[in-house]
């Protein structure tokens, strides 16, 4: 999905890289210290370091005897997720699509119960909206907190635990005897949501780098689509049922996708599968000295509290210190927050045309149409980008910034859609269709911004895109949550008689500034990346291989693309694995913590 960090657009697949590593392993007399470890650890590993990885016992005379060998991907390729047949991959992906949809569905369906909550608990409508905001805010942090565990324990048990907890926390909301209980249940539900930290991570487990873009686009659609599915269904619920049914329906949907996931989605995490395969081979007598990557060291040696804290904090540090991350995350977060603000504002807009509750819910369909248009438009854009990278393997702009090319045309849809929505939202005699055209154009921009910024950050930051895209996802959820509560006062207290028009015009002006940043990054991205310690350390690591620039570039491409969409993985010192990445600069974190690549939570 991303080019080599060095700028060389090698077309090496995971399987090709596996053969490269297998040849190296054979030529080094079956040493269990993998080539990536050699590159990213100290140039001359000590005997102790080698022993820690290979399980070597020293006899006191400097002679080592290897008792344990690590099972590598190339040694069990046919049993890993990459080798699944196409129908199985897309079956898994479709169930994950539904899982992700259910998580985002939970963020918005609650808003259709606001009037019932306000009446039953004797709180204002504005106070009732806190339940929507607190779920989104805790969701933003919850995705980051869940992140490391699927790398250590596997995708399936972690996602099952997340779904179980989200479903459990629906109960105190649905059965809430008071408003405080409701807020506690919503907060815990958001904090329990793993989101894209796991669901998108599974793409990297089963798709090779050159196959991933369409899969990522599919799951991105489930994320943005789930957010508008809530109000569409919620209109019918609000019109015909008690507000508590908004929560019961969330629980029913969540329970359904959890059962689907339990029954039909196998474990896909590569390191977990290698552990299982190694145990199976030892038990069968095939090789009594073969061990999986997670078996060679105790859990607490591989997963220290310090490493975990640095991993969790890195997205926020990059968000604040990296201009590219900050700008694109704010743009992505702002466009997503607009959707949640509109959920609160549509009632104000469409009551002027006497829309019923059901009609109000259906007014979100144009946003969904915009998402579909944007999704389909990226298919030829992916092909164009791939061809450009292949034609210009040594051109940095072609390898990185060209991924933003389609966004140059779709990002302006955000201010265009906002200004159309603004000046058609004043009510009769203007027809309501104008606002829906504006909403559809905003939908095109929202999907495009999310998809393109993720793709670019993964490419530009390599192994550090775990943090870069983590900041992107955090910004989307956090800004959406923070802006949910003030949305209604914003739309009602600005501009006098034309409060709706002027409020949306302000959003139009903000979006113009953010969209301009896309063009700056597209044309001046190489200069900005040279000033980034994260991006530059990746480029420097790509040139350190003394045996050949291309091989090292291919390995780095494999390393960071293999884990696209995966969660933040702490450093595993002394462990040879294809998930190993170059250490961060000492000035940044003070140790050799590393992180696998991730996609944002939503």
Written account of the structure:
It holds the Pfam family MFS_1. The chain crosses the membrane at residues 90-107, 127-146, 158-177, 215-235, 247-266, 324-343, 363-383, 404-424, 430-452, 503-524. Residues 1-70, 565-602 are annotated as: Disordered. It contains 31 helices and 4 strands. The strands form 2 sheets. The chain has a two-stranded antiparallel ribbon with strand order 1-2. 68% of the residues lie in helices and 2% in strands. By secondary structure, the chain is an all-alpha fold. The protein is globular, with a radius of gyration of 25 Å.
| Sheet having the most strands | 2 strands, antiparallel
Number of strands: 4
Give the helix/strand class. Answer: mainly alpha
General form: globular
Uncertain stretches: 1-18, 20-65, 543-601
The total of helices stands at 31
Q: Nearest-angstrom radius of gyration?
A: 25 Å
